[in-house]
Design brief:
267 residues; Rossmann fold; 6 helices; 11 strands; 26% helix
């Protein structure tokens, strides 16, 4: 066999090997996380935001986001899965994006909290911090900060105060569009503030007042990781790449996964 034909056969064999193993030389994508997003209740465009969050997170994280949505726009919105004892079974993380301040049934609330007490991590967004005002600290200890009210819709200057946390490392602050700054009634010892928000509030005398509160934080809920932000009232922010990058990092941190779960291009 001449040398030319031998080289051709060797090249053909190498090409066949590469085609038979298409992932050769490339890292396999990790198994997608299973995420459940609960959305609905008073005062927000949850019909749009549920999809903004799903699409934004799935574009940034190796995850599949299922949605449970309630069209009830009252402060008494409830969610059918919460009626079941094993409602979170099979999920790696739950995103609470509900606004149900006047749901005060302790049996219901304890059933919402049960999987998190058992170790399933969570993300709490915006009005989730104002939910389930039962007269106890049960829900607020899960969040890590108790909040009771918010200011007007005005821009919020976001400044990161913990630069070495896995969620915030390398991130820079920004100023949002019109958003609500939630107050901090109590910061529990289990909470680690990650960013503070500053808002200029107009007054009748023309001199604005400056309000400042923690707006992004991590919480250790009985050993379970919970990522929280009070930002996220309007669709403009919920669709903002900086906001979605932040939530993506929070998701990966809360599930104790590594950076390989963030897709290319995520900040």
């Amino acid at each position: 066999m001449n040398s030319f034909l031998l080289r051709r056969l060797r090249l053909f064999g190498l090409a066949a090997l590469v085609s038979a193993v298409p992932h050769l030389g490339a890292a396999e994508a990790p198994k997608p996380l299973k995420v459940l997003l609960i959305a609905g209740g008073c005062c927000h465009d949850y019909a749009a935001q549920r999809n903004l969050l799903k699409d934004g997170l799935e574009a940034r994280v190796h995850a599949t986001v299922d949605i449970v949505y309630s069209p009830d726009k009252s402060t008494k919105a409830t969610f059918e899965p919460y009626q079941k004892p094993d409602w979170a079974k099979g999920y790696d993380l739950i995103i609470h994006d509900e606004c149900s301040a006047d749901v005060k049934d302790m049996t219901y609330v304890q059933n919402v909290l049960a999987p998190h007490k058992a170790g399933i991590p969570a993300i709490n967004l915006h009005c989730a911090m104002h939910c389930y005002r039962t007269g106890t600290d049960d829900w607020f200890k899960f969040c890590g900060i108790q909040s009771s009210s918010h200011g007007p819709q005005q821009p919020i200057e976001v400044n990161f105060v913990t630069s070495d946390h896995p969620v915030t490392k390398g991130l820079t602050g920004w100023t949002t569009g019109e958003e609500e700054l939630y107050n901090n009634v109590k910061v529990f010892p289990s909470a680690t503030p990650l960013a503070r928000g500053k808002q200029l509030v107009p007054r009748k005398d023309g001199a604005p007042r400056t309000d400042e509160h923690v707006v992004i934080w991590a919480n250790d809920y009985q050993g379970t990781k919970v990522f929280n932000t009070t930002l996220g009232h309007n669709n403009v922010l919920v669709s903002d790449g900086r906001y979605l990058d932040l939530l993506s990092r929070g998701l990966v941190w809360a599930t104790s996964r590594g950076p390989e779960y963030l897709k290319s291009g995520t900040q």
